[in-house]
Amino acid sequence: MEQTCEKPVAGRGAQSGDVSTRFGLSPRETDGEWRDHMELLDGKPPKLRTEVIEEHPRSILSFNQSPDIFFDRSINAYRGCEHGCVYCFARPTHAYHDLSPGLDFETKLFAKPNAADLLRQTLAKARYTPRPIAMGTNTDPYQPIESRYRITREVLEVCLDARHPVTITTKSDRVLADLDLLEEMAKKRLVAVAISVTSLDPVLSGKLEPRAASPAKRLAALGRLADARVPTHCSVAPVIPAVTDQFMEEIVQRAAALGVASVGWIPLRLPHEVSPLFREWLEVHYPDRAGKVMSIVRSIRADATGGGKDNDPNFFSRLKPTGVWADLFRARFALACKRAGIGKARFELDTSHFRKPTLNGQLRLL
Length: 366
Fold this sequence. Notes:
Layout: H1 34-41, E1 51-54, E2 61-63, E3 73-75, E4 78-79, H2 103-107, E5 108-111, H3 115-123, E6 133-135, H4 146-149, H5 151-162, E7 166-170, H6 179-187, E8 191-196, H7 202-208, H8 215-227, E9 232-239, H9 248-257, E10 262-267, H10 274-285, H11 290-299, H12 324-340
Parallel strand pairs: 1-5, 3-6, 6-7, 7-8, 8-9, 9-10
Antiparallel strand pairs: 2-3, 4-5
């Protein structure tokens, strides 16, 4: 991909909006607003404003049949994510809406204010059978705009009332704003929370995931959740060779010291448009090691001929890298877990007490 920026885009993960997509979309300006052009005429760099569009879908639960993931249904309260993690595998979804997986993904967001109402209607259907709902599998349910919209909290309130289990994945300590709900759900075995910690360097984190919570805040949130007896998992993810893998052992050690019950790691994935965005990010921030990083990434994603590739889209193998470097990461992680006395736990959530929610203001008889 041709380099499109001479210096880092402050406060954003992607370094451009000019990303070729699978759908033949033409490149677009960084922000697309006339104000940006006016600012350029004034000699000022364009400001990348976060825009939020409210949408009202007809359904809120998404079902999948992927054989290598632990959930079969999920809720995404938002589309796009202001955290701006350059490696985010959800970025390509923005291309389906004629938006760039680059800067558009983190500046042009969609919120679903009616999510809780839609969920209540779905759970009330006669044929609905409960299984854990995954939140945060595509975009973060606790990204900054959650403070204003509170959609995630409303969804959790519905799930608590219906005794419906939920799993949450986030990079934000904003999850603690709902600690009151999470504690009640934990008592009923209705919730498990995973927080991903990518590095322990706030400067690196500011480049890699610029609007996510700092590593220190995420670790503190893990500790608070563990103290509240909420089933908690620390995900060392993604592990980026020669960039973040140096923090693997210490993250495991700190998570164990905080009383976190479970820890795991996930290798870097670069599907579709994420690959050129990540390569561009490397050239901007770490040009001295860009070649080394991608060489290792490609070595752990070997194809049938033995050659490397940026990404493996196949079920099962996409989450299980191969080769010498992958074996080294596994060995390091296993040794770190052994030393810290922590492993990967399986949280069994309870669906046996599910009760269909009431509609139209009805009161429960029991």
